[in-house]
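Continuing the series of single-chain predictions for the mutant panel. This is the parent chain; the variants come on the following pages.
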Amino acid sequence: MAGEPLVVWSFLKVKGCSGLISSRRRNRTGRTLWRMLSWLLIIGALCGCTDSRTVSQLEKIKQKGELVVATRIGPATYHPSPTGLSGIEHDLAQLFAQRLGVRVSFLVCDSVAETFLAVEAGRADLAAAGLAITSERERQVRFAPAYRTVTEQVVYRDGASKPNDLADLADGIFEVADGGSHLLTLKHLQTAHPDLQWRVSEDHNSAQLLYLVHAGLIDYTVTTSDQALLMRRFLPQLRPAFDLGTSRSLAWAFSKISDDSLYQQAVAFFGDIQRDKTLDQLNERYFGNARVLPEDADKAFRQSVRERLPRYRHLFHQAAARYQMDWRLLAAIAYQESHWDPNAVSPTGVRGMMMLTEETAKSLKVKNRLDARDSIMAGANYVAQERAEMPAHIAEPDRTWLALVAYNAGPGLLEKTRHLAVRLGIDPDCWLCMKKVLRLKKGYYQGLKDKRVLLPGRQSVAFVESVRRYYDLLVYLSDEEKFRSLLFQNARNTGMAFEHSS
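Parent structure:
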C-alpha cells in the first residue's frame, strides 16, 4: 500500500476501517475511494468556477473607485470656469459618480468621433459630450435616456449676407466640424439638393468654427442651438440663419457590450433627476440665463469694460478679496446698479456706485455714498451678509442668486417669498423654483389663508438675471485670450487630456 495516496489513507483512518479489511479488499476499497474522491474534487472545482462569477463593469468601477468619462471642451458641455471645471456634462457626470460612490475623471477628446472610440476601446466608461442620438450611432453605441433636445442651425455673421436656404450656402465658404451629427443631416439633405457642398474641417471643432465665422474668416458653419445660444453671448455678431433639420435628443453613450450593469444605473439616474427636478435646475443653471443682451446694451457694456472699469477694477478686487467673492460678480452688480458711475442718483434716493439706500448706508457705517471705495466695500459687505444668512444647506449658485434678491429688494421680501413657496409646495432653496414664486402677481391663491399676497418680486428677478448676464460676459471678457487659447488648442496640447473631479 506504499504507493497509495496519503489522502486515501487519511480518509480510511478517519472512518476507522484500515485494520478491519483484508489487503486485497483494502486495495480495491482504496482505489474506489480514490476514484470517488477524484470525482468529488472535479465536481468541487466545477462548482467553484460557477460560484466565482464574472465581475461586472459596475463592480469594476466601484473597486477601482473611478468613473472615466469621455468628453470634449465646449461652452455647452465641459470647460474651465472661475470656480473650476464646469458645464452641464461635468455636473451630470459628477452627480452620477457620487451616486456610484466613486470619483470621476474626464478623458478630454478633440472630437465627437474620439469620444465614441474611447468608449468602444474601453478607455472610457461612458461618453458625455453633447452627443445627438441618430440611427447610425445607435448601431455603434448604446444611448442612455435623453436629457436635452436641440436643433442644428446654420450660423452666419451679422453684416454679411444672410442665407435663407440651402441654395444660398453656395455663395460663401461653408465649413463644418468633423464627426458631428450634422454631417449625417447634410448627407441626407444632399440627396434632395445635389448642389449642396461643404468643407469638413479636421482641425477645428464646432465652437472654434463659430469663432472663425465671427472673425469673418469663413462665412457659414453648423452648430447646435444650445451652443449657438451660449456662444452668441460672447460673440455678439453671430446670427442663426435657419434650422438645418429636425430636432435631436442629446444623451450619454455606452459600449454595446453584453454587460449593461453601468448602463442600467445611468437609466435609473436620469429617471431620478428628472423626477426630483435636478435636471431642470441644471438646465436652468447653464441655459436659463443664456438670453443674449440687446445689441445696444451689449455694445455699451463692452465699451464700459474698456473705458470705465479700469478706473475701479482695483477697488472691486480689494472688496472681493475681503468678502471672499469673485470680483467680476461684484462688478456686475455695480454695473447693473449704476453702470459704474460713482455719482449715480435715482429718483427714489438711492445713490452711488452700488446704489445704496440711506438706511442701508447707515447700517453699514457708510458716511459718503458717493465715494466709490466706500460704496463698493459696503455693497460687497451687504451681499456677503445676505449670502451668509442663507440656510447652510442651500448650495451655490442658488445661494448667491437668492442673496441678490435680498440685496435688491430687502431680506423681508425674500423671507416672505420663501415662506409662500413652502406653502405652495415649491422648493424655497431652488432659484429656478423661486423665480416662479417671485413672478406671481398680487392675487388670491387657493389653499392659502391670505386672500391677497403682494409680491413685488418681478423686479428682483429681472435684477438677478441681468447681473448674471453681465457676470457671464465679464468673466469671458476678462479671460478672453485665455479662453480663446484654450479653445483653439487640442486636448493633448492643453494638458487637459485627463482631468479629475472629486
